[in-house]
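Is it possible to get an amino acid sequence alongside its tokenized fold?
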Amino acid sequence: MNRPRRHYHERHHDRTRAIIAAGSVVTKDVAPYEIVGGVPAKRIRLRFDEALVERLLRIQWWQYDRNDLTDVPFNKPEAALDEIERRVSTGCLTPRVLEYQEFVPAPPAKTRNYLGRAIGWVRRRLAVTAT
């Protein structure tokens, strides 16, 4: 008997890593650290318990540089948050400062529209027949 497989892929929802099952149709907002699936997507469960999710959102671990977090044990979320809080309180860890550049749209391409080409063709045709 073949069982249908559930495929999951991870999508970032405001950098809080909600998991959305492959083939799901998301029609509503997905909460942070929530696992959803189906058509339409429905909540399956949270990845962590409520207290840990609140702590993850409060600490905002994603705002720190990856290189400063290389030896943090992320496979144990409680220990990782304890370590990040310790480093922040001692001043060893500070948030990244992101610099944003102003978006300047490209100027529109200089193209002639269809009507302009048609009028040019008619004028050329009239000039040829008039001579």
Notes: The radius of gyration is 28 Å. The CA atoms of residues 32 and 80 lie 18 Å apart. DSSP finds three helices and four strands in the chain. The helical segments are 50-59, 77-90, 114-130.
